[in-house]
Design a protein that fits this description.
It contains eight helices and 14 strands. With 292 residues, it is of the alpha/beta class. It folds into two domains: 3-145, no CATH class; 160-287, Cytidine Deaminase, domain 2 (3-Layer(aba) Sandwich), CATH 3.40.140. A six-stranded mixed β-sheet has the order 1-6-7-4-5-8, with helices on one face. A six-stranded mixed β-sheet has the order 10-9-11-12-13-14. Strand 6 (96-103) and strand 7 (107-112) form a beta hairpin. The protein is flat, with a radius of gyration of 19 Å.
């Protein structure tokens, strides 16, 4: 089936990029644009650094499955994390990223799957365009949107100080955000709060997919720590956290009702409003080691 003509303009190939060069696509995720700064004392015309947001096509065995609006950095991590969190594959061994193509109007990531995984994928229905602000916008059925998951198998209990430590450390890993002020981050911390990986993207769910992919490719045990995010905590953020087997997600902003309800069914602790030395536990409070 030809997804490339369904609901979005086709991606036009410009060149094929070796995987080793994937990080350099689109100038490392930022670009300079002319801008005019207006103040009470005058006008300043100069160049400003802004974050890249481009269509990223995810292609499995020459079949375009989805186009996500994303920041074109850490693309192998993104492809891996997306494939895992969407249930397209069950492990990194089932996925091979064969090429990353820089196109005239975006980026295309080409992947190969085992025959049985590809057959299952082709049975799924999905619209092409996923917005940078929505991780489940591309699905076309209630069942697919609310795809059930097995509960996270972990006995982890995270100390309050570890949650505060990890969130406090997150800005230091937000290189793109320091340059542009427009990028979300997802970080993975060990149970003591030491931040060991951070990924950024204009979309919060893309940042989490990149992080999940980075952990999987590095062989990091997902049950040995927790996620911190620089955004709100909505359903798809908990869904991806659970799909990766991570027992807790801590967000700097608010949760949603579906996020909290779903978290209880999969055993993912939800901690939100982590700021100014305090936080609020909304789901699975046993994941936080509160003092007696």
């Amino acid at each position: 089936m030809d997804h490339a003509t369904a609901g979005t303009a086709p991606l036009i190939a410009a060149c094929s990029t070796p995987l080793s060069l994937a990080r350099s696509l689109c100038h490392g995720g930022t670009r300079l644009v002319p801008a005019t700064v207006c103040t009470a004392t005058g006008i300043d015309r100069r160049e400003e650094t802004i974050v890249d947001e481009v269509p990223v096509g995810l292609v499995y065995a020459d079949d375009l499955f989805a186009v996500m609006l994303a920041t074109p950095t850490d693309l192998e991590d993104f492809a891996t994390g997306f494939s895992l969190s969407e249930g397209i594959v069950g492990s990194t061994e089932e996925l091979s990223v064969t090429a990353i193509d820089e196109l005239a109007d975006g980026v295309r990531i080409r992947m190969q799957l085992p025959v049985e995984r590809l057959a299952a994928l082709l049975r799924r229905k999905r619209n092409l365009m996923g917005g940078s602000g929505c991780g489940r916008c591309g699905t076309d059925s209630f069942a697919e949107t609310l795809r059930p998951l097995d509960p996270v198998r972990s006995t982890a209990r995270i100390a309050p100080d570890a949650i505060r430590r990890a969130m406090a450390a997150l800005p230091s890993g937000q290189t793109l955000n320091r340059q542009t002020g427009a990028v979300h981050a997802a970080g993975f911390a060990r149970s003591d709060g030491e931040l060991v990986a951070v990924r950024e993207d204009v979309g919060r769910h893309n940042a989490l997919d990149k992080l999940i992919g980075a952990l999987a490719r590095a062989g990091t045990d997902p049950t040995a720590g927790f996620v911190v995010v620089s955004s709100r905590c909505s359903f798809e953020m908990v869904h991806k956290t659970a799909a990766a087997g991570i027992p807790l997600i801590a967000a700097i902003s608010a949760p949603t009702s579906l996020c909290v309800a779903f978290a209880g069914t999969v055993g993912v602790g939800v901690v939100a409003y982590v700021r100014d030395g305090r936080f609020t536990i909304y789901a699975v409070p046993s994941r936080v080691a509160l003092p007696v």
